[in-house]
Specification:
Chain lengths: ~270, ~350
């Protein structure tokens, strides 16, 4: 048995553990030390960094990776990066309940001023339930309606009975409407994903211009974790748009884009 | 001296008040208003009032709590002594955050003493002591406001705050955050979006299958296909639907319906006048349309058969009347619109 144990430890000893395995063990180590946050958080941070490296350098991206990365960042105390990770996951699979729940939880933890929370929190997706139903059951219903519609239409061609024509028309119209709805919903998601989204990494003052000498745009500074859209860059400053359509400027190093490059995330041992 | 500062009238009034105050009987319940100090007088009256202060603990960290007790002895009116508000006294306010502790019934009162308790929190580690509380009281016998204080300050050892970083706490995050996907799931390929392809397939694949079915049906049963073509005309469809409803052997009633259906069809299709109703009239009218003679004969024969069954002896029927009617319509359509019928 001792020999087997040594064999299992061999990759760790040689330092050849793959990032995903090392991330999992770091996370497990953090969970084991959760009674002391000072000891646990560095392990969660390490796990999050490794997941980020996996995503950026090995181009792995799927909802489960996003869940793991988001949970790790959140447990490491890095709320903005957790929000970004969850958002990546939701974009990949909008119907994953655990991702949506985690994203809502993370958004709730952003330290907004009470009057800012409703204005700066990203608005909920319009007709979310309908869209979710379209994504999950739309294709099946569409296929059934289309099949029934075409079969009935063919029967009408054979029998020329007017009632069958009406039924076929209704079915085919419904199928076409479903197809159009699905296409529109997919296009909307593509458009949203193409938006250069970002989040503030630290509390920062939104300014009217691209420099610290410009007056603040808002009375309250933006807390860490505010989701926004980057409009353009000028030097070390970025023009951003908040959820309430307020335009302003932030230092570029105070925001992390949704597609955060991992270059600044050191996978230090 | 008084005359140099005050006017003669004011001097007179002040001297009168002092005299009145001095002559007033000394009591334990009140002290003269004239000359009463604004600070550090809390209403105590007595011959020899003493103040003591104790603090527990004296070794604390910044912002840690300690309890300060101020005891006043020797006052003749312990129940009337007001609580010193340490937060209003600079020497205390600059050093401590002060919270009053509810005194409740003071057991020291029964001994003729009074005590007040405070919860103090040193603001900085530069706080070295609790300063002695200056305490003024009215000395009724000597008629003046005397001042007393504890013998010395209470020395404190105030150490820096415990940095939050050095004290670990259990993590309070919700349980779902501690659950992660397995390693194999993490490495799964990115889900590709085939929505558009699937949607188009769902919409058009049944059409292709049904198209193939339709072609196969036409090849397998050309007559049925021709009939289906003919049913595109409302007149033909109406007549055929009516004929279709007559099932089994035709009796008088159904023969009448068949006859009316054929007549209706001929009127609509070939523009026959509404007054034409007998087989002979129909044949004559159709002759003008240019239908083949053989078809005309079949029309006349069929109409006569319908009439025979309808108006013949009771119980007469025909097995083939409906089929013949259907066949006649097909023949007429083929004769007048051969391309479509074929």
């Amino acid at each position: 048995m001792a020999g087997y144990g040594f064999l299992m430890m061999l990759p760790l000893v040689l330092g050849h553990l793959r990032p995903e395995s090392e991330a999992m063990s770091s996370f497990a180590e953090g969970v084991a030390r959760r009674d002391n946050d000072l000891e646990a958080r560095p392990h969660f941070r390490r796990a999050a960094e490794l997941y980020a490296v996996l995503r950026e350098q090995q181009h792995v991206l799927n909802p489960d990776l996003c869940v793991n990365e988001g949970n790790s960042w959140l447990l490491a105390g890095d709320l903005p990066r957790a929000i970004l990770a969850y958002r990546r996951g939701v974009e990949l699979d909008p119907d994953r309940a655990d991702l949506r729940h985690a994203l809502d939880y993370a958004r709730d933890r952003v330290d907004y001023a009470p009057e800012d929370r409703p204005r700066l929190t990203p608005p909920p997706v319009a007709f979310a339930r309908l869209k979710s139903a379209l994504r999950s059951w739309g294709l099946v219903v569409l296929a059934v309606c289309s099949a029934i519609g075409w079969v009935t239409l063919t029967r009408w061609r054979m029998t020329r009975e007017r009632s069958t024509l009406t039924f076929a028309a209704v079915m085919l119209l419904f199928a076409v409407a479903l197809a159009a709805g699905r296409g529109y919903e997919a296009a909307q998601r593509r458009r949203a994903a193409a938006e250069p989204a970002a989040a503030t990494l630290r509390p920062v003052v939104l300014r009217k211009g691209d420099g610290p000498s410009f007056a603040p745009r808002r009375e309250n500074p933006l807390p860490a974790g505010v989701e926004l859209t980057v409009r353009r860059h000028r030097g070390a400053w970025s023009q951003v748009q908040l959820a309430d359509s307020t335009l302003g400027w932030l230092p570029a190093d105070a925001i992390a884009p949704l597609g955060t490059p991992a270059s600044h995330i050191t996978a230090s041992p | 001296m008084l005359r140099r500062i005050l006017s003669p009238h004011e001097s007179f009034a002040a001297v009168s008040l002092v005299v009145v105050a001095a002559l007033a009987p000394a009591s334990a319940t009140d002290a003269p208003l004239i000359g009463r100090p604004r600070d550090y007088f809390f209403g105590a009256i007595g011959e020899r009032v003493r103040v003591e202060m104790t603090a527990v603990p004296t070794d604390v960290r910044v912002e840690d709590e300690l309890t300060l007790t101020i005891s006043i002895r020797g006052a003749s009116n312990p129940g009337e002594i007001q609580r010193p508000d340490l937060a209003q006294l600079d020497e205390f306010a600059s050093r401590f955050h002060t919270d009053d502790i509810s005194d409740g019934p003071d057991p020291a009162l029964s001994r003729g003493e009074r005590s007040f308790r405070y919860r103090l929190r040193p603001k900085t580690e530069s706080v070295k002591d609790i300063p002695p509380l200056l305490f003024r009281y009215w000395q009724p016998r000597l008629q003046y406001f005397a001042t007393t204080a504890p013998d010395s300050a209470i020395m404190l050892t105030v150490r820096p705050r415990v940095p939050a970083e050095s004290a670990g706490m259990p993590m309070q995050e919700p349980e779902f955050l501690f659950q992660v996907a397995k390693e194999s799931a993490v490495l799964a390929p990115r889900p590709e979006a085939h929505d558009t392809v699937y949607t188009v397939l769902a919409l058009l694949l049944p059409a292709i299958v049904c198209g193939a079915w339709y072609i196969w049906w036409r090849l397998r049963d050309p007559n049925a296909a021709a009939l289906a073509q003919l049913r595109r005309t409302a007149v033909v469809r109406g007549a055929l639907d009516e004929i279709q409803r007559v099932r089994g052997p035709a009796d008088a009633a159904t023969a009448g319906r068949l006859g009316r259906a054929i007549l209706g069809y001929l009127r609509e299709r070939f523009g026959l006048a509404a007054s034409i109703s007998t087989p002979a009239e129909v044949t004559t009218a159709l002759l003008r349309v240019g239908l083949p003679a053989e078809n005309l004969r079949r029309v006349e024969t069929l109409l006569r058969e319908c009439n025979a069954v309808q108006f013949g002896p009771s119980g007469s029927t025909s097995e083939t009347l409906a089929g013949e009617a259907r066949q006649l319509i097909l023949l007429l359509e083929e004769a007048t619109w051969p391309a479509m019928a074929s």
